[in-house]
Amino acid sequence: MVLAGLWLLALALAVRQAAAVLRLPQDERLVDLFAWIGDNGVLRVHGSLYDGETPFTGTPFAGLVLKPLTRAAEQGLGVAWTLGTMLLVAAVGVVAARALPGPVPRRTALFAVPVALSLLVLSVPVRNTFHLGQTSVLPVLLVLVGWLLGGEQGQRDSAEHTGRGGPLAGARGKPGSLREKAVEALGGKAGGVLIGVAGALQPAALLFVPLLWLTGRRTAAVSGAGTFLICTLAGWAAMPDDSWTYWMQHVAGFGLGDPADATANQSLHGALLRAGLHGRPEVVSLVVLVAAVSWLALRRAVRYARDGQLLLAAAVVGCAAVVASPMAWQHQQLWVLLAVVGRVGRRTGDRLVWPVFVVMVMTLDGTALVPKVAAFGVLGENAVLLAAVLASCAVPFVLRTSPAWADPQPSGPLSRPNLMLELLLIRVGYWAYSYVRGHAPDSRSLAEGHGHQILTAETFLQLDIEHSLNRLAARTEWLRDSCDAYYTTFHFLVPIALLGWLYARRVPQYRAARTALSFATLLGLVGFWLYPLAPPRLMPGLGYIDTAHGPQDLSDPDFGALTQLSNQYAAMPSLHVGWSLWCTIVVFMITRNRWLRALGVLYPLLTTFVVMATANHYLLDAAGGVAVVAAGFYVQRRLARLRGGNGTAPAEDGPGAGAGRAAVAADTRTEPATRTVPRPSLPGPSSSPDRRAPAGQD
Question: What is the pLDDT of residue 63?
Answer without folding.
Answer: 81
